Amino acid sequence: MKTIFSTLFLVAFSVISYAQNRWETTKKTASENHELILLNFSGSDWCIPCIKLHKNIIETEDFKKLETDNIIVYLNADFPRNKKNQLSAELKKENAFIADRYNPKGIFPYTILLNSEGKILKSWEGLISADALAFSNEIRQIKQNQNP
């Protein structure tokens, strides 16, 4: 019985540690580079607004420039449904850990801008109505307001 309990405890701890390591790595990178974190929850193969958000904003040059200009660190927590698109067990657990913390209502898409400590600065529920340039400029403005 002790062996079973110990094994279950170690498995649970390793899952939590793995997810926290990814999150902590993201926060550390953001902190070291003085960047914000843009966290996006998506259903990449079933959520039409999520697909549109990625196509019309995330995959654009205006958005990608936020990353290359050290404005944001982008983190996507994806929850695909189709069998062919399934994530690894580790990545599923990692995304669930992040969702428990930042998206407990299960909103899709849900985009959150955070500081490097994980404090929410702004959030967007559903499809962002702005185009990629306007959205990127809004994030740049928030970043400028964060600097002393």
Automatic annotation (TrEMBL):
<dbReference type="InterPro" id="IPR036249">
    <property type="entry name" value="Thioredoxin-like_sf"/>
</dbReference>
<feature type="signal peptide">
    <location>
        <begin position="1"/>
        <end position="19"/>
    </location>
</feature>
<dbReference type="InterPro" id="IPR012336">
    <property type="entry name" value="Thioredoxin-like_fold"/>
</dbReference>
<keyword id="KW-0732">Signal</keyword>
<feature type="domain" description="Thioredoxin-like fold">
    <location>
        <begin position="31"/>
        <end position="133"/>
    </location>
</feature>
<dbReference type="Pfam" id="PF13098">
    <property type="entry name" value="Thioredoxin_2"/>
</dbReference>
<protein>
    <submittedName>
        <fullName>Thioredoxin family protein</fullName>
    </submittedName>
</protein>
